[in-house]
Structure formats: structure tokens, C-alpha cells
Design brief:
- With 381 residues, the protein is α/β, with parallel strands linked by helices.
- 48% of the residues lie in helices and 16% in strands.
- It has two domains: 4-162 and 361-378, Rossmann fold; 175-359, Rossmann fold (3-Layer(aba) Sandwich), CATH 3.40.50.
- The protein has 18 helices and 13 strands.
Amino acid sequence: MKKVKIFWLAGESSGDLHCELIMKELNKDGLRFEHHGIGGPKMQAQGLKPLFPFERFAVMGFVEVLAHLPFFLKVERRIRRFFKKEKPDIAILADYPGLNLRVAHIADEHRIPVLYYICPQFWAWKHERVHKLKMSTKHVACILPFEEELLNIHNVTCSFVGHPIVEEITFMGDRSHFARFFGLDPDKKWLGFLPGSRNKEIQKMLPVFLEAAKKWDKDEYEILISKSHSVKHLSFMRLIEKAKLPHLHIIDGYAYDMMRGCEVLVCTSGTVTLESAYVGTPAVICYKANPISYLIGKHFIRVSHIGLPNIILNDSVLPELIQRDVNAANINKEINKLLPGGENRENVLGKLQNIRAVLSSRRPSVEIPKIIEHLLETYER
């Protein structure tokens, strides 16, 4: 059987995780597929042959991207040469629209069919991206249900494949097991802080979260700080030590168990807000960007919410703190409203149940291989 050569591009840790599940499903078909491109350790464990070190792609924000522009131009040139020489059968591009939409155009020039997985959020800002999707892709796999309807309006071939967190969220045990594993008191209330998965997010958000954590009585509350595997350990621990909070617990990994066990979470805006909503734990959503990037983005933004749960439900379910409003006093004020007995808790818990119902109808690892097979048959090289 002729091997199928797939080019992948996932520029962030979340994309690395999302694509891993698809690759794992494809690899069940023996050695039929060859995987090349850009992806992290999870994709590489599934056989991806990387073109560049993955950590170079962890860049976000207008100012930050401009500073790394020479690197991204080098990446585009390398990918162009790869397409010309290796002629992959299909390109699967995951999220990361700043680069991936340009790569989609390059692939289309080389007559390589493009499957775009995790639609760019054109409905939030940069609406012109929908026209780029129409011109350069053969199929868009949407992970938010309303995106399919919006893309259909523009005659973009697409389908809702379900959200990857439905397949990714698993637990190691119940709350008591988690408590024993990390030395937590199950009789106390747990407050969880999730400062992000990027090093720059940690520098911005973790000091503020730690300042908020200082206000809670250690005899009544356990303070849990999530540490992502993708952040630099030494920089993270320096910020922890500087805060002088001896009674907090660093949870390295096991984020989903932490989410489920806590009464309230404080999250940096991103996929983690949707994960916590899917698990069913109320959260305070915090967003703090480079001031120049924020001012530019604010001018173009088309949605009234920052947090994905609020966007999906089209409702201000979870509190959002943005830029200067992200401070210890405001965070703790919102935590109080969401704790057991708080004024907003029961209303929020009820509405979060809708998130699980909306996202669970399909599974990407089932739907996307079907799309891949269809594209391979339709655009056989």
C-alpha cells in the first residue's frame, strides 16, 4: 500500500494535544501514514518528524509576533521547499491562524488539499479570514457548533466535529484520592488558580493570582496553583518563592482533577476556561495582554465576551476581569460570589450544564479521520 504523507502544523501546546488524538487514531491503520511538519512532544511521540523546534512557536500578541517576524518568514520558506520537494498528500493545519492561513495558501498553490482543524475565530475579529478559508482550504473542521452555520453562510465547506476537550478530559480518581495524592485536606474548601500554559502568561498572571491567594484563611481554604508542563520550571518557582506563601500546593499536571475538586477556579483566558466549564466548576476569567496589543485588538474585536463559555452560551455566565481590572481585590470579590452560599453560584452551576450538552454530541477523533479519507479520495495525487 502506498504511504500517505501528511503535513501537520500545530504551533501551540493545545494544538499539539488536539492533534495527538487524531494521529493516534490514524496510526491504528498500521504504517500507512507518514507524519511531517510542526508539532510538539505529543505529536512527535505519534511519529511526527519535526521541521523546527516546537518551542519557537509559542508567541502571541501583535508586538510579540512582530519581534519574531524573521523566524516566521524562515518557516514559510522552509515549508514552501518541503511542499515542492516532498509533495505531501494532505496538509492538516490546527488553529494558529497567523501562520496557518498563510501556509494554507502555500499548500493550495502546490495543489495540496488543506484540512483546517479548529477554525480561526473570524466571528470575534479579523472577519476577512473567512474569505481566506474559502479560497485556500478544502474543508474546515469546526469545534464550536455555531461556527458551522456561520461558515455555511459564506459557502465554506465545513462540519462540526465536536470539541477535543470532550475526549481529552479524564480523571485519575475521585476528590478524596486526589487529596491523598497531593496532601490536601478534603474537609477544607479548595481554591484553584490556573495562570496559563505560556511563559509570558505566567509572568503577567501568576503574581496577581498569588496576591489574591494571600487573602484566604489557610485554616479554612486550600490554595492550589496549577503548573503546566509547558512552562519553565525555574521561572515559575521563582515567582512562587517570591510570594512567600508556604501553605499553597503546586499541582504539576492533573489539571482536570484539580478543576473538579475545587469550589472555585481563577483562570487566565483561553481553552482552560472552557475545560473548567465542561468539568462544571465556576471560574473567574482573567485576561491581561501587552497594552499595545490589547488596544489594537480592542479596536477590531467583534464579540462582547472574552471567555469561551460566555461566548458559546451568549451570556455573561462567568465573571470576566480584563486588563487593569485584573487585581487581587477584584478577583477575591468574584470568588466570594461563586463560593458555596455565594450570590451567583447556583445560577452559574445550572448554566454550565449546558456547556457539556452542547459540546458532547460528536468526537473529533471519530469525525476527522472520515474527513481525511474523503479528501484523500477526492483529491488523489
